[in-house]
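Lecture 7 notes: from sequence to structure.

We start with a single chain of 300 residues. Read the sequence below before looking at the structure.
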Amino acid sequence: MAFEIYYALVTVLAIVYAGISRFVQNKLIDRKEMEAIQKESRELTAEMDKAQKAKDKKKVDELIQKQMEFLPRMNKMMMGQFKPMFIILAVFLLLTAVVSQLDPTVRDDIQLNLTQNNTGCGITGAGIYSACYHLDPSNTNYGKWTILATMYANGAAIGHNETYFLYNPNSTNGDAYVETGVGDGITVTTDKSQYMPNDTVIIYAVPANMTQGFSFLFIPITPPAPLQVDRIQATLSNGTYFRVDLPVTIPIVNVNRIYQPYTWFILVALVFNIGFSIVISQYQKRQKAQEDKNTKKGKQ
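Now the structure, written as tokens:
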């Protein structure tokens, strides 16, 4: 699947999700009942405050009884809102699963196992993992290649970090974005920052010597311990990865390019959800204005 088709598909699915979520909310949530209950709750609270300040015990007791009778209706209304939330969440998970399965930018990723000591390539030494990859001249995916190094212990990923290099730098657009590392800490580098066709990329990964330990509210729970790494795997992007240039820069976060299909999906869904809300609100206002106009004419 070409990237342009995938980009359009993610956009369409996000719009579909926004439409479905808005439709479900309008159909399954009785906003008039919800607003009426919220209004009644505010009124009861205000009356209770007034009665307590006046030290009117009889009125306070009456209001407590009203609140006890009111609570089941409030709970029923709140429980009723969970149903559309579950439906919307299920649709979101389904569509994002489709987005993940169809992503063409990960299908050509290159997997390498890094080894240490004398079994790898490049500089050898205890705790230094390395692997080599030859850039075949037939590969014309020029530009930025990202390298994601993930370390495992007892079969589970315990940390990762990312770096990049430029393949045939004369054709690159200067993009230098990479994801930040997480977990117990691992450094990943290459022997050079730029390569040409027929060059060999040497990848190095160095795990931290100790775990970070675990703290809760700045209180140490478990102290740092020697880090035990079973293996390290590197994923080369092969020069293909999701990215969308925005027409404007998002203020505050100062973002003008999206790098993850999930982020693009959520952004498009959010924008269209807001748009649908505005359109529906304006339509409802016009409908109400027309009804009021008709009612006024009928009275005349």
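The chain has four helices and 13 strands. Keep this in mind for problem set 3.
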